[in-house]
Design brief:
single chain, 143 residues, 5 helices
Amino acid sequence: MFKNILLPYSFENDFSNIPETLKNLMGKESVVTIYNVITQNDLLASVRYDNKHKSDITKEKEQELSPFLEELSNLSINYKVEIDFGPVKDTILEKISSGTLENGQFDLIVMSNHRTSLNIKHVLGDVTHKVTKRSPVPVLVVK
């Protein structure tokens, strides 16, 4: 069983299979860190056009996450939510590398692969590919 799992969450991907997968990977003491990264361009657009700042955007994303979090709660999965700002791929890799200080080293990274179409050029998405290629921690890609 894995103790500390990082789940980079993208609102564009399908995460319907993730809760059951997490339940099979976790023990009673395990914690999943649900990590969403908002790009600087999205932040700038929100500030400029919608007059929303970091705290407003963070609250909105947490509300959007609530159906997924309810699924995790129903399965008795311990989780915490972290939202960060920056380049998605690099910020996720920094989070993986810096996981040693406050919450212990991550044992596993779980990522969703939303590529379900047969007419695709690449099997993995850009972010998933870069994280699996450069992560010092094992990565599980769930279809």
